[in-house]
Amino acid sequence: MRAESDPSPPEGSTSIARWSASALAPVRRLRPRVAALVNVAANGANQARQRRLAAYLEHTFGPSVRTERTDGANLERSLRSIAKDAPDMVVVLGGDGTARTALETLSPLGIATAPLPGGTLNRIARALYGSSSAERIIDRLRFGEADWIPGGQVAGHKFFVASGYGAPMLLSAVREHIRRGRLPRILRALPRLSSVFRPTFSLSGSARPYNCAIVGVGPIDAAFGLSRPARASSLEVAAAHWENWLEPITLAPSVLTGTWRRDANIDVSQTVALKIDSPHDRIPALLDGEAIAVPSNALVRYNQRCGLAWRIPFGDLCSRSHT
To answer: Could you tell me if 67 and 200 lie in one domain?
Structure first.
């Protein structure tokens, strides 16, 4: 980072103390106050990776970096404990659920989140830093700065890459059971898969019934890593009504080639607000891969300043955020 001020002491009545503070400001910006949180329950946050993360952080920012570990059960409590030290940023190693919770918890406190790839899909880390390794991201964090990034809000929760709505989102629970080797729960969940397309809902601006909707922060292709990250100025909505599993399965080739928008069964639109109405009490949803249930009349809104992230402003680690 290049200093903007003249390093020589000014003449006149300006005190040496004031000059020192001004001259050292760029140096302080080169060494932001850093803390770290590791979710040991995340897929990818193994012990060797944790030691490597701690070593890289200490090498880059000094031995004063505070590192906390959590099993995910007390994630918010751990984040608020770290926040008491008032760091400039918290480096987070975990999955998308960990990164999303960190952004939700720390942003209102004025603390930026730097999510590292430490989970299964790592969509938030990829949206911010591309496909770079955790070590390379850490290497460049000192050149970055806090910046607000866009996202979406629904039912008091935020998402920063994409959200999904409808009974097919229940598949995430099956995926989680498979990842954790929970065979009895997998067997209990399988019968439900045959009926996931029955519940329907409506979307504002359309008279058609749907049973699945994906909402991306910006282009959906970018949200799922199928194209380069793009600066988001709205939400993109893709909604469909599928009768069976064959229909979404046959859609896979067009998703990979980027031609899925031509499918007659999919309605695509851009918006800053979307109303989802369902005759059922709750609507299954996924926010950046984390399963929740939203009210039957949920409102999804675009937010230009949704979360405070640590942006790296050059190379292939360029953020898609707005200033």
So the answer is: no
